[in-house]
Amino acid sequence: METIWTPHRFSGEVLALDVANTVVLRVDPARTFDRFDDPAEIERFAAAASGFRAEEIGGNALVVSAPGAAKARIVALRETTDALFRDAVTARAVRSEHLAPLLYRCADALAASPVGIAADRAGLAAGQGRIELEAAVAVSALSLLQPDLRRRIRICGNCGWLFLDKSRNGSRLWCDMSVCGNRQKARRHSRRARNDTRERTDA
User: Where are the beta strands (DSSP E) in the chain?
Assistant: First the structure.
């Protein structure tokens, strides 16, 4: 079934984490699935990301020239990105066993599709036109190694997605308050209601 690439699916706040989150419910082996199983979804993701991540990518257009051939490389880059930053959140450090594979995948992507990097912010320079998704994800992932950004990466308490906490006090718990935050609130309300019912029954 074709994915509708809604704003919620870009809750990672940066391209590299949005791509990492294309594996849904990664933390639940019984229910997890990969939105990139269909190479055509990678193209649709790139088109949507061109809008949602326009500032980060310098207003350029993200493309996937050969989705079938590119899928394995993009998925490998995605998995090394997720492994490094998910571990960095829990370990509070970047560990070399995760850094080396990510650097290898990023170097491979950028060697295949050289791009210009912005001088004044984290992201791509403007005015390049069409940019391969793989190269853009590599630049995004490398930018997250900056300590001030890396310290703000979180794991959503509901769905397990990675996201960059851009709140002023760095206290976000959910990737998307309107989705994951509300679901957690609903669960807490349901638990309180059940506890209240049991207490009245036992009284």
Answer: 23-24, 33-34, 61-63, 130-132, 153-155, 162-164
